[in-house]
């Protein structure tokens, strides 16, 4: 009788949830189609100071270990010379230095300084954009925003070919962390492979003024280190990027059964210049983006306003988060699946944010200028008076909180990875609903790179987001599934981690994955012999060092469990082998252990 009552209660909850999700999605759709309401409260500045010190936050409000990053002070230079002077002064005082942008959307603690340190922010070093129309290049100050760069280039009748999908980044930040779009054509989808030259401010001896500016291009052996520098070689001051003549894009999303997409991704990437795939494993659906370059005189004035990067009413963001927390607390897998089904159906209805006429989606293909199609992030922008809406993950309104795992596979290993994930999915498909609530598995393509910390062969990039609890020790529904997928990627198939994303475990042993890692370290010793731009945090990531394991460290990916205490035994979460990848060690719910 009790079981029948519980089943009836759960069925009633699922029915109410369907209505609730439908109402939320309707509100989001209405809100997104009203132009005067699409502005957002801008993200909080990443650096805040009191009378004695400063703290650095990332764009999500929470670092991987939930510990703040403190520094002695921050400066806001407006010219390259002011950056040089700041580095020189820090060198004289034997201070450590870290450079940050106005955005700070890096998830690992690469930008975190040691406490006796100086932060150099490029937030106000953001005005210089020099276009060489004849040479098809643009030279920009490192603090210039990606959107600011793209708009200037498009005004000149030119286009930047590669860009990350999220535009809330600075040029210096996206270069230093290896940001990517998607393409196996031309120079490829990684932005650093479109860099022509880069200028760095590095420490110098007293006779050189304690700091100097060096300019590097393909003729200089240090160039391949500087293209993906992780902020540890010096402060990037200027970047020159290759351009193309202006063009438009034509995009159509094609929904397919996921039965054979692991056999079809190569053909898709070769056929369509900017192709990608979104895989919703719980829905057995793979969405192919047929995305091609078309002439500038093609009909169409569409835009890509990706739904995940649109402004959301603060009430909606907090309500979605509260709903997910309630489902987690109730261990309501069916509720998560209801939510996932609603989200996927809604995204299909609105073409995931593509708009034919800058207002709504009316049908495929959506054709628009490259600068309006290659990246998005409308939640970033606001008039001074707007305080009602934010980016969905804004911590000030208790919005979404999630992990983001991004793995870069050699193309030859990607099929086997997908087959393993399908085996894990097929054991219990509903366990994968949690990732489909966000954006499923986003699959992109990048070419082999000469950057020392870039990809050494044509590669496939896989991103997936999943729920993160408000408190570090709180278990998450099906967390063992995502830990196993994570370990299948990084340990079984040796995927490389995206430098600006991921939990700490993704970086374990990372130096062995890059054939030119030692060349990068040699370049660092040459440019920064005193390790002025290093910190304990960045060293932990770059060298993939395993910190001392402590109780609960595996619950948030700070370690891989080897004992039950690394999970949360008091809540029934013990260290267990993987279900498909037996070498994996994951924190799995084992209720009998609590009895």
Radius of gyration: 24 Å
Average pLDDT over all residues: 92
Low-confidence stretches: 1-10, 29-38
Helical segment count: 14
Helix content: 25-40%
> β content, as a range?
15-25%
Quantity of strands, as a count:
27
For the structure shown, list the relevant keywords.
L-gulonolactone oxidase, globular, EC 1.1.3.8, 22% strand, L-gulonolactone oxidase activity, alpha+beta, 27 strands, FAD-bd_PCMH-like_sf, 595 residues, Oxid_FAD_bind_N
Describe this structure in words.
It is built from 14 helices and 27 strands. 53% of the residues are buried. The two termini are 23 Å apart. Helix content is 28%, strand content 22%. The strands form 8 sheets. It has an 8-stranded antiparallel beta sheet. It has a 5-stranded antiparallel beta sheet with strand order 7-8-12-10-11. A hairpin with a 4-residue loop joins β1 and β2. The chain is of the alpha+beta class and 595 residues long.
Question: Layout of SSEs?
Answer:
Elements: H1 2-32, E1 47-49, E2 54-56, E3 69-71, E4 73-75, H2 80-92, E5 96-100, E6 117-121, E7 129-132, E8 137-141, H3 146-155, E9 158-159, H4 171-176, E10 195-203, E11 211-217, H5 223-226, E12 235-242, E13 244-245, E14 248-257, H6 261-271, E15 276-280, E16 285-294, E17 303-304, E18 312-313, H7 314-330, H8 333-349, E19 354-355, E20 366-369, H9 370-373, E21 389-390, E22 402-410, H10 411-427, H11 433-436, E23 441-446, E24 459-467, H12 479-492, E25 496-497, H13 517-527, H14 536-542, E26 573-577, E27 585-589
Helix pairs in contact: 1-8, 10-12
């Amino acid at each position: 009788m009790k079981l029948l009552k519980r089943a009836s209660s759960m069925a009633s909850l699922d029915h109410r949830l369907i209505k609730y999700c439908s109402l939320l999605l309707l509100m989001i759709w209405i809100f997104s189609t009203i132009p005067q309401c699409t502005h957002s409260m801008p993200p909080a500045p990443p650096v805040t100071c009191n009378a004695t010190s400063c703290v650095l936050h990332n764009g999500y409000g929470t670092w991987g270990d939930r510990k703040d990053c403190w520094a002695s002070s921050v400066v806001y230079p407006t010219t390259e010379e002011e950056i040089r002077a700041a580095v020189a002064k820090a060198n004289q005082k034997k201070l450590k230095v870290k450079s940050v942008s106005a955005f700070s959307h890096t998830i690992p603690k690469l930008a975190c300084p040691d406490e006796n340190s100086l932060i150099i922010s490029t937030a106000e070093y953001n005005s210089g954009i020099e276009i060489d129309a004849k040479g098809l290049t643009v030279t920009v100050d490192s603090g210039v925003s990606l959107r600011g760069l793209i708009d200037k280039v498009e005004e000149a009748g030119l286009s930047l070919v590669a860009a990350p999908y999220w535009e809330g980044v600075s040029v210096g930040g996206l270069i230093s962390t290896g940001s990517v779009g998607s393409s196996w054509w031309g120079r490829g989808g990684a932005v650093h492979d479109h860099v022509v030259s880069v200028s760095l401010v590095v420490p110098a001896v007293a006779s050189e003024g304690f700091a100097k500016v060096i300019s590097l291009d393909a003729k200089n052996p240090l160039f391949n280190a500087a293209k993906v520098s992780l902020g540890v070689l010096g402060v990037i001051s200027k970047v020159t990027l290759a351009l193309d003549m202006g063009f438009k894009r034509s995009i159509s999303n094609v929904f397919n059964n996921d039965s054979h997409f692991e056999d079809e991704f190569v053909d898709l990437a070769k056929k369509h210049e900017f192709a990608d795939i979104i895989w919703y494993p719980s829905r057995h659906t793979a969405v192919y983006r047929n995305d091609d370059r078309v002439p500038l005189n093609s009909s169409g004035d569409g835009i890509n306003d990706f739904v995940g990067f649109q402004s959301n009413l603060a009430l909606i963001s907090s309500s979605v988060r509260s709903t997910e927390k309630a489902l987690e607390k109730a261990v309501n897998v069916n509720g998560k699946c209801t939510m996932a089904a609603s989200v996927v159906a809604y995204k299909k209805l609105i073409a995931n944010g593509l708009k034919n006429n800058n207002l709504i989606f009316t049908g495929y293909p959506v054709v628009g200028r490259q600068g309006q199609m290659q990246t998005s992030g409308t939640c970033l922008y606001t008039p001074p008076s707007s305080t009602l809406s934010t980016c969905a993950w804004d911590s000030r309104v208790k919005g979404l909180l999630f992990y983001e795992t991004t793995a870069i596979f050699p193309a030859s290993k990607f099929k086997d990875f997908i087959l393993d994930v399908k085996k894990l999915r097929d054991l219990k498909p509903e366990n994968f609903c949690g990732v489909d609530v966000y954006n499923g598995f986003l699959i992109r393509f990048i070419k082999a790179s000469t950057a020392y910390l870039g990809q050494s062969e044509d590669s496939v990039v896989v991103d997936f987001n999943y729920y993160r609890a408000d408190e570090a020790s709180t278990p998450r529904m099906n967390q063992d599934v995502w830990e196993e997928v994570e370990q299948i990627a990084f340990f079984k198939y040796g995927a490389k981690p995206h430098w600006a994303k991921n939990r700490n475990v993704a970086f374990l042993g990372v130096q062995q994955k890059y054939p030119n890692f030692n060349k990068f370290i040699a370049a660092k010793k040459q440019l920064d012999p005193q390790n002025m731009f290093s910190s304990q945090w960045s060293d932990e990531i770059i060298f993939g060092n395993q910190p001392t394991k402590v109780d609960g460290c595996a619950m948030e990916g700070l370690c891989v469990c080897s004992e039950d205490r690394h999970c949360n035994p008091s809540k029934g979460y013990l260290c267990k082998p993987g279900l498909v990848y037996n070498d994996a060690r994951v924190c799995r719910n084992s209720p009998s252990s609590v009895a």
